Amino acid sequence: MRRRFITLSALVALVPAALIAQSAARNPDAPQYGTFGFDTAGMDRSVKPGDDFYAFANGTWAKNTVIPADEANYGAFSVLQDLSRERTRGLLEAARSDPRSKIGTAYAAFLDTAAIERAGLAPIRPWLATIKAADKPGYAALLAQADRNGVDTPFGLYVGQDSKNPDAYVVNLRQSGLGMPDRDYYLSNDAKLVEARTAYRAHLARLLTLAGEADADARAAAIVAFETQIAQAHWTRIDSRDADKTYNRMTLADLARTAPGFDFAAYLKAGGLAADTLVVGQPTAIAGEAALIAKTPIAVLRDQLIVRSLDGFADVLPAAIDRESFAFNDTVLNGTPEQSERWKRAVGFTSSALTDEVSKVYVARYFPPATKAAADEMVRNIIAAMNRRIDTLEWMAPETKAKAHAKLAAFVPRIGYPDRWRDYAALSIRAGDAFGNMLRANQWQHDYNVGKLGKPIYRWEWGMAPMTVNAQANFGLVAITFPAAILQPPFFDPKADAAVNYGGIGAVIGHEMSHHFDDQGAKFDARGRLTQWWTDADVARFKALSQKLVAQYDAYQPLPGLHVKGQLTLGENSADLAGLAAAHDAYLASLKGAKPPVIDGFSADQRFYLGWAQVWRRNYREANLRQRLLTDPHAPSEQRTWIVRNMDAWYDAYRPAPADRLYLAPDARVRIW
Ligand SMILES: [Zn+2]
After folding, report:
1. How far is the CA of 132 from the centre of ligand 1 (A)?
2. Residues near ligand 1 ion, CB 5 Å cutoff
3. In angstroms, rounded to a whole number, what is the distance separating the alpha carbons of residues 586 and 596?
4. How far is the CA of 241 from the centre of ligand 1 (A)?
5. E strand or H helix that includes residue 171
6. Can you give the residue ranges of the Peptidase M13 N-terminal domain (predicted)?
7. Letter string b/e over residues 344-371, b meaning 16 or more CB atoms within 10 A of that residue's CB
8. Ligand 1: distance of its center to the CA of 630 in Å?
9. Cα–Cα nearest to 621, from 559, 555, 557, 554
10. CB 306 within 8 A of CB 211
11. What does the pLDDT look like over 417-472, one tens digit per residue?
């Protein structure tokens, strides 16, 4: 959230040399990768698939692929993200010549670093002056204003679908207030995190100095001390992703009584939220933060907002601040040595600020209807496969199975792009005003969100742009979403072998569907309501099976001393496990009894799992990997690939020996769905 307009993470248009060579010589009917959709040149056949299936499939690629200087990691997702960004750039460059085009104007203003430099700190001065003028009684209203301006505060306040009443919106309040990625960065004694902490304090001091503030070192130290106490109050990420624990509906009066020290009523009122009930995510953390705010001098509270504002708007402030923000947030925290070229960041900003305006022109040009038809069919096949798998489950009661079928029948697949667009008429975008554009875009976003309260659910709305290389499951909407940009090679290639496509996009589709049955998604019924629709015995058996997967992932140690967090990544690993299995079933069913050929020496099942491994090829910088291990609910790509060790069909395909590292005896393989 800190750099909110860099949601399209910085990536470079550097396709691995091997791929460029292939495309140069390609005939129009050939798939983009290799001869059947998989890059066999990227394999390392000196590795036994049973020892490390990731390296077997991707080892040579991993050795030969250098992470571009402005990237924190690089892989199959990055290649497509680069492509999306290049295409979006072309559209925005064309839009620039039309002075009435909002996207063209926003893009051009962001690119105009000379104007940004000339303006200096003048554009942000009024907001900084507002912060500095606030007194303690005015702090709640100040936070509401910060929220609207897009500046992170100690609380996350937003309107969202009510998990227990999915036909209505409700105000949500969540813990927030850390300038580093997680509480561990403040509290752990790990040497690398202690280093990051020291760098953070120096970063805050430099920001204050760049903003012309005196006594920067002492003030930075006070901010870090304040945030360290916030970190102590915070829940862990494991608890914070628990749908039951984080659903605490209360009245404002209850909240005032249980979390004294901060005027929540004034906060909501100033934020334009006319509500007397809300859902509180982490009650003890919110209470801890309120008490902490009460005893912290207003000067420290103000300073935190000043540095958060400078970091948040760094992209559109003078280069000295921009570079300082990059040096900490990207180099220290992610290991990225070089900042991306300005145009890439301009594409990212414009795509975030005016998402649907950019999306409209993007999909008109880059989403062929045939792709949607093919994806629709795959979704149907995988839903059918999941239905069949549910019938065979031994641990689930028949009455729960009936409800699980009903939930599958209720799925809303969303493919390519939304069928309705948001209206940005109220958002004013001005030439030569990069800072103002970002500020007003943040305010527009805030007002749009607040405006949902009391309205029927915006069921048409997507949480992802069609240019984004990703996919999503939404529990409340019982929806699965696949943006246009992920429906491309290596995930999906109409010219590739079907086995590779099912192992790629098929498994991604299965993954998102399976989220609705993972450790959290399974708590939501066919209407998207958070309620226990299973028998108690089903829940107990499901938890026991899930714990086996937790233990399997806890054992992985990607960095010395740093393990994958099995519980934090349980939802994603469950979705991989169930999704890959369903995709495999769907692939077999799609053959309709025909025997698939051997291609280049690989059986169909071997190609299916190679397709899976190929979409997960990714190299990480160490700092980025460390941050992900601490904060990301996804396991690293290598460990995600290894989910295959739980699948009987993978053993049949590759015949690993019992002594191989990934080998699991049949009764040690985890099967949940
Ligand atoms: Zn997922």
Report:
1. 42
2. 572, 575
3. 14
4. 13
5. strand 165-175
6. 49-418
7. bbbbbbbbbbbbbbbbbbbbeebbeeeb
8. 17
9. 559
10. yes
11. 999 999 999 999 999 999 999 999 999 999 999 999 999 999 999 999 999 999 99
CA of 514 to the centre of ligand 1 (A): 9
Which residue ranges make up each domain of the chain?
125-317, 369-418+462-668
Classify 125-317 by CATH class: mainly alpha
- Closest by alpha carbon to 499, among 609, 408, 370? 609
Q: What is the DSSP letter of 602?
A: B
Q: What is the largest CA-CA distance in the chain?
A: 76
Question: How many angstroms does the Cα of residue 595 sit away from the middle of ligand 1?
Answer: 32
Assess contact for 564 and 554: CB atoms under 8 A. yes
Instruction: Report how far ligand 1's centroid is from the alpha carbon of 80 (Å).
Output: 18
Query: Cα(572) to centroid of ligand 1, in Å?
Result: 5
Distance of CA 288 from the midpoint of ligand 1 (Å): 31
pLDDT tens, residue by residue, 574-617: 999 999 999 999 999 999 999 999 999 999 999 999 999 999 99
Instruction: Name the CATH superfamily housing domain 369-418+462-668.
Output: Collagenase (Catalytic Domain) (3.40.390.10)
pLDDT in tens, 307-337: 999 999 999 999 999 999 999 999 999 999 9
Nearest-angstrom CA–CA distance, 150 and 443: 7
Give the three-state DSSP class for 624. Answer: helix
CA dihedral 406→410→416→418, nearest 10 degrees, is -170
Token couple for 300: 């420290």
SS3 89: helix
Look at the chain and count its residues.
Answer: 673
From the CA of 473, how far away is ligand 1's center (Å)? 7
- For tokens 């893009």, name the residue: 107
Spacing, Cα 153 to ligand 1 middle (Å): 28
- Residue 600 exposed, middle or buried by CB count within 10 Å (0-12, 13-18, 19+): exposed
Tell how far the Cα of 643 is from the centroid of ligand 1, in angstroms. 14
Q: DSSP letter string over 457-479?
A: P-TT--SS-TTSS--EEETTTTE
Pairing mode, strands 165-175 and 155-162? antiparallel
Q: CA 156, CA 175: separation in Å to the nearest integer? A: 6
Does the interface predicted TM-score (ipTM) exceed 0.95?
Answer: yes
- Of 170, 165, 173, which is closest to residue 275 (Cα–Cα)? 170
